[in-house]
Amino acid sequence: MSGLSLKKPKNSGVEIISPPGFWRRMAAIIYDFLLLLAVLFLATALLLPFNAGEAFTSRQILYPLYLLLISFGFYGWFWTHGGQTLGLRAWKLKVLTLDQTPLSWYQAFLRFIAALLSWLVCGLGFIWIIFDKKKYSWHDRLSKTAIFPQSNIK
To answer: pTM above 0.90?
Structure first.
């Protein structure tokens, strides 16, 4: 399947529902980022007693890895359990495989790593949505997943 579903309107032929655009996705990303930030604050607070209550330094490599693991857990759990983070749910979007099935943890991992790479090159992987015919980001393509409007899901 190409990744886009067809939806039949009640009174006419078949109509293609367009995938969500750049700004709608960015709104969901900002919403999720704020939630993730709160989760990372909590994760840090839970870890501080093990660092004698001191701030973490740049020489403590395990701390950023811990935050990265927490971040993956946040996104991975939502993506594999219903396909919606709270930001995606608020904007009526859902992340699924191209054949509209739930993501596996492996696909969630690929999507997460590819999304990080998309951000590391100044967000070009996200900006790509504007130019792509199917409105896929780099991490959509690399993980063989996509964001679908909730009304477009079979």
So the answer is: no
